[in-house]
Amino acid sequence: MYKELASWWSLLSPPDDYVEEAGFYRRTIIGASAIRPRTLLELGSGGGNNASHLKASFKITLVDLSPEMLKVSYSLNPECEHIQGDMRSIRLGREFDAVFIHDAITYMTTESDLGRAIKTAFVHCRREGVALFTPDYTSDNFRPTTSHGGHDGEGKGMRYLEWTRDPDPSDTTYTTDFAFLLWDGKEVSCEYDYHIFGLFSREDWMRLIANAGFVPKAIPFEHSEIEPGTSVVFLGIKP
Length: 239
Known about the structure:
- This protein is α/β, with parallel strands linked by helices.
- The protein has helices at residues 9-12, 19-32, 49-54, 67-76, 111-123, 202-211; strands spanning 39-43, 59-64, 81-84, 96-101, 125-133, 145-149, 152-153, 156-165, 173-183, 188-198, 215-220, 232-237.
- The strands form 2 sheets. The protein has a 7-stranded mixed β-sheet, sandwiched between helices. Strands 6, 7, 8, 9 and 10 form a 5-stranded antiparallel β-sheet that branches.
- The model has no long low-confidence stretch (mean pLDDT 97).
């Protein structure tokens, strides 16, 4: 999905689906900041869906590992700076009022990698700035799920089935399998995709954020489609 199928991204995950959660992220970042934040670095920005809503409030720099996804994001957010890089190691040599890592943080499957990504956020965050990390799950609230969806576009369409599970509860990962049905205007083809994600406890998150140098804080994620109190995001305040 992040390579040869990247051009289908908007039919899997359209920008309009992000209006509510992007609003929550904007309020959270601004509410936690000592001064009104103007600049924002998003690490693991993917197709730029969150940025398409946040750019009205911040000057955004977008970093992603996939050049194909950066191309998708640039078509949606041409006014934003786009840089290819790995959230574990990239160093831009400048600081931002806020740093944001959406669900791409879940591709950190070891404590070492997660700690490196959080450290990258710290290095790029100005003093008294804010970093926001939004994993899909912690080990405290994980539950297997199955979902489906998809959308039609101009001359093509996509439908998908998504199966999220934890084959080995003793390790720090869980998996998601995707089955995609792709209609190109003439024929339907089927593609399979498999993702491995990191799964860490709330205590682990707080410890790793503190180890990077931040003052950590956990807050409930608020969304109309999420049962209150079942999901959490993490803030790091740079002293």
